[in-house]
Amino acid sequence: MRRRSMLLACASVAGGLLLGPVPTASAATTAPELVVAGGTGEQSTGLVSVTARSDSAITSITAHLYAEGSSEEVATVSEFVLGSGSESDGRWTATTPLRLAELGTYRVVVDLTDADGDTSTTQSAAGFDYWRTADLHDFEVTPEHPDHSHQQVSVSGRYTITDPRTGETAPAADSAVEIATSNTGETVSASTDADGRFSTAYTHTYDGGGSVSPWLQLAAPGSQDGATVYVSPVRSDTRVLLDTDELSTVEGEPVTVSGRAEVWIDDDWRPLAGATVRALWSTESGAAAVRPVTDSEGRFSGELLMPRSGTVQVNVLSGTYLIASAEEPLRVSVARTTSIGSFAVTAGTNSRLTAQGRLYTGESTPPEDVRKVQIQYSADGATGWTTVTTVVPGFGDPEEGSLFQGTFTAPAGQGHYRAYFAGSADWQTAYSEPVFVQLP
Fewer CB within 10 Å of terminal CB in the chain, N or C? Predict the structure, then answer.
């Protein structure tokens, strides 16, 4: 675990500031140089450390501590032990921790003497941090890999606080803990009990993974352990089961796309609740889509309005815990609006009649096997309609319609006639207005 500090003062500086008079030494000798003085990195230890170097072994170190903004010395430390490096270039640590009355950052002035008898007195550019330290224990985040069935993540741990004034460690009781979750910056709060323990939980909703880190809210400046656990969600396979793979409607009326979505959990397909299902029809000339959300039983239903026939692709969209399902095809037949206009029947000789009119089918023309118009006869104009001939209209302008014409023998001396377009899955049925004809 790394240690983080709430102090504003810099904790490490590459050099110090020479305060005392220039030492009396020959030109060939060099006064000892203070690199930095301060704490050991553990603010609660109360141990002063000094890093220094010289051209000969450093034989004496004395550190003087002053409260910030004061010239009154509060402590003197002269017992040091070499911890790393050499006697001429090393880092020394005090053998006895300080027990000062007040917390804070103290100014440090260091007297150095080397084996040549050279001396220096230097104020460290860094201060001595004397604050409480919070330590984190038993930090746990479970599960680290939440899935569709286990989306709640539990976070727990225990904090203790060490006070350098006494050297004692005690539980961080009744303190607030802020926990940065992997939900992209979202935080949750917890409070420690009398033993310094805390626990809370959050629901992981972020599509990707992320870190979970606690931070004890100290009443005064100090340092504390930092810990991070990476949480990464597991995604499960999904599938769509359509109620039907074919639907039909007429132009301007929607179809209802429905079915059930399922998720693969615990080696079985189970109803998938709260997932978004997409039904999409898309071509170069247009698109239509609906995105219903599944209910508690995994059922979904949505109305899709398409301008023309086509194949709709239906699938479960991916999510935090879901892999997008394979697309299931749904054939939707949209019967376009049609009409027959300008219908007329004229009588010729020998009981011959000629019927003509125009078939309107919108922006496109049906193929020849569909583009057929039946001329029908009824004696009373209401019942018993029978087909007397069938004609195929030409390819006409969409606005002007496709012209059709046919000649046939009248089945009776008088009666009613109409034009009838049977249509198909892609074209609606159409009838002309009936016309009455009486042979001369």
Answer: C
